[in-house]
Specification:
By secondary structure, this protein is an all-beta fold. The protein is built from one helix and 37 strands.
Length: 462
């Protein structure tokens, strides 16, 4: 295998720079199901884990079963509401499921090997839009680390051998609350009737890696928020932090390793809070003031940490730009938008599912309902307000990416819209694959690696 630089690898969800790719004239800006397709490969099973790339390997995961799982479908709701997915709020698993790691050849798309990781019946339900293989793997170049909450945590070498596996125990704290007017959850804790409607939507938060440690979070449990660290060599649990939730809410945000000018921090958003730890598990700072059901992943750009949380059913949908070096509780007092450690904040600018993008000094927020906004990344000042991308488009879940002066936004219909970067909003292209897209692509080595509901594509200029 050829040794490549870090910029030539895509080792985790959203890659080395949270979707902001170094400009490269060889990268494609136009494609279709037949144009600029280097190859496409069918991937059996269902999963929304994003592809990762290391050397000549592309890794994706999926889950296969005899359970008649419908392909995720959707109804478009008028008035800008989030798409309503068919099949009810929760779907119970039946039969035996098998979690699979696929290794594809970067150059040819051929499946080099596939490894069954675990077989069993998932104990939790899931949202019809979700899968039991929605978490994206990570790699350190020696092994691929796969975490699927329903199956466990796995380390697999590049030949497809399982080096170790571990069943991750769920959070153990139980709050002492009265059960009057409540129902019992599958995990044994009481919750109110409204919260029960949103329980058991399934997991989706991907793992993060730093040196010899893998970090995972659990915010999809009904009563407790958890973060834990595991050793990459043997899967030993190194530390765990658990807290009772502020209220019965859920989230799917992936933890982020923030290597800033002061130190390395492991940042996690969930349970209406942001928390930061050092790699050994020592709490560094926290901030209250997120919406419920946080999904976007924190990321860093130009010395600032960006955290967004935008559940559409609440008036509080904040964006925070945080400076390095904070300690303790840095929550903003009522009416304040900045502080010693918060460069700026916006109360109602965040997105629900897609993570935000900072590219060439602007922050782009892609909304699930099909709008996009732009703000100055350094000050938070609005560059332009909500612009509808296409009135015919359905929902957006994949996070945006950018290169060559263009921002790319993939809809669940399989259409990738090309938007010019900069102060003036304009859609300048539309690339259609005709297959549902929820996974965020990898952009590496002159190629866009796109995962649809049934295939993986390598898109590259011919």
């Amino acid at each position: 295998m050829v040794t490549l630089s870090a910029r030539d690898e895509w080792a985790n969800f959203r890659g080395p720079s949270a979707g902001a790719v170094t400009d490269n004239p060889q990268l494609p800006d136009h494609w279709s199901a037949t144009e600029n397709i280097a190859w496409k490969t069918d991937v059996p099973g269902l999963g929304w884990s994003s592809p990762i790339v290391w050397d000549d390997f592309i890794f994706v995961t999926a889950v296969k079963s005899d359970d008649p799982i419908p392909v995720p479908g959707q109804d478009i709701i008028e008035d800008g509401k989030v798409p309503n997915y068919k099949g009810g709020m929760n779907r119970e698993a039946k039969g035996i499921y098998t979690w699979v790691l696929y290794a594809l050849d970067f150059n040819t798309g051929k499946i080099r090997w596939q490894r069954d990781l675990y077989s069993g019946t998932p104990q939790e339900k899931r949202h019809p839009k979700n899968t039991y293989a929605s978490e994206t793997p990570v790699t350190d170049g020696k092994r691929v680390y796969v975490y699927h909450a329903s199956a466990g945590l796995f380390a697999v070498d590049f030949k497809g051998k399982i080096v170790w596996s571990k069943k991750v125990t769920p959070p153990t704290i139980r709050m002492d609350v009265k059960t009057k007017g409540s129902v019992l959850t599958d995990t044994g804790g009481p919750q109110n009737d409204i919260a029960a409607m949103f329980a058991n939507l399934g997991a989706a938060a991907s793992p993060a890696i730093y040196r010899d440690r893998i970090f995972i979070t659990s915010d999809h449990e009904p009563r407790v928020w958890m973060m834990a660290a595991f050793n990459t060599e043997d899967g030993t649990e190194i530390w765990r932090h658990e807290e009772p939730k502020l209220e019965q809410a859920y989230g799917w945000s992936t933890p982020f390793v923030w290597q800033n000018e002061r130190r390395t921090e492991i940042v996690a958003a969930g349970d209406q809070r942001i928390r930061s730890f050092d790699p050994d598990g020592t709490p560094l700072w926290s901030l209250k003031g997120l919406s419920v059901n946080t999904s976007p992943t924190p990321f860093a750009s130009n010395g600032l940490l960006y955290v967004t949380s935008g559940y559409p059913g609440t008036p509080l949908r904040p964006v925070y730009a945080i400076k390095p070096g904070a300690s303790g509780d840095i929550s903003l007092p009522e009416g304040k938008t900045s502080s010693d450690y918060i460069a700026w904040s916006q109360r109602a600018a965040a997105t629900y599912m897609p993570s935000a993008l900072v590219y060439k000094g602007q922050m782009y927020n892609l909304y699930s309902q099909g709008f996009i906004t732009a703000h100055d990344a350094a000050t938070g000042d609005q560059v332009y307000g909500r612009k509808r991308i296409d009135s015919a488009a359905s929902g957006f879940t994949a996070s945006p990416w950018a290169y060559n002066g263009k921002v790319f936004a993939a809809s669940e219909d399989g259409d990738t819209y090309v938007i010019q970067a900069g102060p003036d909003y304009k859609v300048i292209g539309k690339n259609s694959l005709g297959e549902m897209i929820i996974a965020t692509p990898a952009v590496v080595r002159n190629s866009v690696i796109m995962r649809t509901v049934g295939r993986v594509y390598r898109i590259a200029r011919k």
